[in-house]
Amino acid sequence: MRARKVGRNPFGTRDFIPERPPLDASDEAFGAYRQASKEFHRRPRHTYSAEELDAGYVKYQELYRGQQDFKRAGYGNKELVEAMARLPNLHDFVMTMANCIEIASRYLGNSFTAGLRGPFGDTRNGHVDGVPQLQSIYRSAFLSGTKFKSFVCGDVGWQLFKSTKKDLAVLASVIPESHRFSLQLFTGHDEQTDMLGSELRQCRRYLKNGRIRDLIIQAEKLESLRFILDWSDPVFGVDLKTVVGDHTWTRLSHVSFGNMEGSEGDLVAFVERYALSLRRLYLETFSLTSGQWTTALPRIRSSFKNTPDVLIERDLLSQSPLRHFYLGEALWDSRRVPEEKTHIERRE
Q1: How confident is the model at residue 129, as a pLDDT?
Q2: pTM, full prediction
Q3: Last residue of a domain, one of 207, 229, 262
Q4: E strands, the chain, where?
Q5: How many structural domains does the chain have?
């Protein structure tokens, strides 16, 4: 019986997870596996003494009270306004949640990852992932007169777009000078089924009202646009026109979309609008609601007046008729034909 070491857990005990034997293993091997699994689950939860636990609980209460005070104070809104007012050259904003770090910074990871909350937040206690913290930032920017030239945020809860129209107008007011806009939305996690994207349907309903489109079009000087959802769904997908509408950004050169859908006509029309300016188009798991990729990709390629990078990762799907091209982690360019799958594979 082999066991996989997973290191030391937060309670101080060392864990060894027994490996499940192959399907053709003997009954004895399965018996040993079941016994090892029982012993694993009966292991001590921690090695702390009663005194250490009492001291830890006192510290926890102190930290919890501090967090509640911070929350009541608008997540540092007053201090942020004062700080931003003293930083006249503040133009770039980057916000990251948990393991969804947007920039490849080893210093950032080493410095802050250990203290970041889990990637799914604490929605049961009303702490939607990143939303109140982000609101504190852009409200403070508004009050201090700060305008962001680069706005990068991920992975933040979709509930951002449940905010009032007045509050979203505040966010829109701090990005009109932005050359770069990047937003990645977290669409829920069902703790019972361990399923991601559990709130995608609700997210879609708010985005269909035009809230993301009305926000992005305020950035008239936009050169780089990135909008990524953390999950895709063939029934409750987020449509391309919901995000960009028919708007044209005259300087747009870099575009990235992930886990979205749209018709072949809308996707090709979007590319044609930027035939002269577009330098990079990135698609990750995109589904055509009508049309086919076998015709869409040549049309996209022929639309360009220059030679941009066209990069496609993971899955290309079409819904009528249902077809699936899988590219995995390898990126597609105009010289390679994707491999077609005859069935839909669930992404893990």
Answers
A1: 74
A2: 0.72
A3: 262
A4: 3-8, 14-18, 92-96, 150-157, 180-186, 189-190, 195-196, 224-229, 254-262, 280-288, 309-319, 322-332, 339-341
A5: 2
